[in-house]
Design a protein that fits this description.
single chain; mainly beta; AttH-like fold; 2 domains; nine-stranded antiparallel beta sheet
Length: 394
């Protein structure tokens, strides 16, 4: 009897394994990128701007749909803020809640980091243009002007973001993963690569008139991202003349395990480059402040396309923010065990020194300073170094 039982167990295991292999072969996907993804458009096309619907709601009918509208600003008096409204699914795919992100950093070093949930009944968003609300907290506008009004406990803001550059996106703004009929996408538009920001920020009842520079982008998706994306680097660099956005996304093994780099560059009031013909290398990994995951402290970007080229070295000087994304879903001890065995998803934002150069036509700029960039881990285990990955399109 025992021998027979083990034969059945082996047979059942074989059947399960065969089913898994069959499912995997049917569902193994590669990334499908928009047409023109790997070649920068001419300057006239780059500066054409967006349509109102590009920054409107992009709803998808599945439980993994998510969407958010993001703003940040740094002011002349030393205040900084990060502002965001998120559709209900991003907060909890099993509950009808939306959320507001409202972070304020004061010149004297105080930090207010808030993710504020709201019932889905107070959420509204237009499919025609950017007109989003969670209760009395609103984002409204289109080129060349957006207005953001947020309130939470001891914080409030009334800010106007005015474009200093046209809005921008790659192709349709979406990257599709897998088969078209699955309709699994990742979308990104940068409505304000660089904006002049004016208005007020109130902290503890004290209202501050502020002016400075800001940024606004918009993301959405309809798939479970960890199935398609392993980890990414994303950041911005702004000087008196230069605006740069850089990213390096590494897909999961399911999507070929490739790197998808991106560099956006504007000089003065003109966009001059959008390029996936870039190389990114990372080094000097370090354990985070919680001992949960590791991150690279050195990042190098170089790019060259048409008459634009550049090289940059970024070196982390301080870990500004660390979020263990499992911490709110399970006890800390269990999240650490899960991180060692399965995956340790985490989000980081860093203060970083940089130095480099950019050449546009015959003009070359030597640059150095301080900026921020972020690192997001989805599928790497605690302490796991990413394997070398080929760069897509190069």
């Amino acid at each position: 009897m025992a021998s027979k039982r083990w034969k059945w167990v082996l047979l059942e295991n074989a059947m399960v394994a065969a089913a898994v292999r069959s499912w995997y072969s049917r569902n193994r996907t590669v990334q499908i990128a928009p047409v023109g993804m790997f070649e920068s458009r001419c300057i006239e096309e780059l500066n054409r701007g967006l349509k109102p619907g590009d920054d409107a709601l992009h709803p998808y009918e599945n439980r993994f749909y998510w969407e958010w509208w993001y703003f940040d600003a740094q002011f002349d008096d030393g205040h900084r803020c990060v502002l965001e409204l998120q559709t209900p699914n991003i907060v909890n795919m099993f509950a009808d809640e939306c959320a507001m992100l409202f972070n304020v950093y004061t010149p004297d070093g105080r930090q207010y980091n808030n993710i504020v949930p709201f019932p889905g009944s107070v959420w509204s968003a237009s499919r025609e243009t950017c007109d989003v609300a969670a209760g009395r907290n609103t984002i409204k506008g289109f080129y060349p002007e957006y207005r953001v009004n947020f309130e939470h406990e001891n914080l409030a803001c009334d800010l106007t973001f005015r474009n200093l550059l046209p809005g921008w996106t790659r192709g349709t703004g979406e990257i599709m993963f897998g088969k078209p009929e699955k309709n699994q996408v990742f979308g990104w538009v940068v409505a304000q690569p660089r904006a002049q920001v004016t208005g007020t920020i109130s902290v503890d009842g004290v209202e501050n008139e502020v002016t400075g520079l800001g940024y606004h982008d918009h993301n959405w998706g309809s798939g479970f991202l960890p199935l398609y994306v392993s980890h990414w680097i994303w950041g911005r660099l702004t000087t008196d003349r230069l605006t740069m956005i850089f990213a390096d996304i590494t897909t999961s093994r399911r999507c070929g395990g490739v790197r998808v780099p991106l560099v956006f560059l504007a000089l003065d009031d003109r966009i001059v480059l959008e390029s996936a013909r870039a190389q990114c290398s990372v080094a000097a990994y370090k354990s985070d402040s919680q001992g949960f995951q590791i991150y690279p402290t050195h990042v190098d970007f170089d790019f060259a396309e048409k008459d634009v080229a550049g090289e940059f070295h970024f070196e982390v000087s301080r870990e500004l923010e660390m979020i263990n994304t499992l911490a709110e879903k399970m006890p800390l001890g269990l999240s650490r065990l899960f991180g060692k065995v399965v995956a340790a998803p985490a989000y980081y934002r860093f203060l970083s020194d940089y130095q480099g150069w950019v050449k546009v036509g015959d003009e070359r700029l030597e640059l150095s300073g301080e900026t921020h960039w972020e690192y997001m881990v989805m599928t790497l285990r605690s302490g796991q170094l990413p394997k070398p990955a080929p760069t897509m399109g190069i």
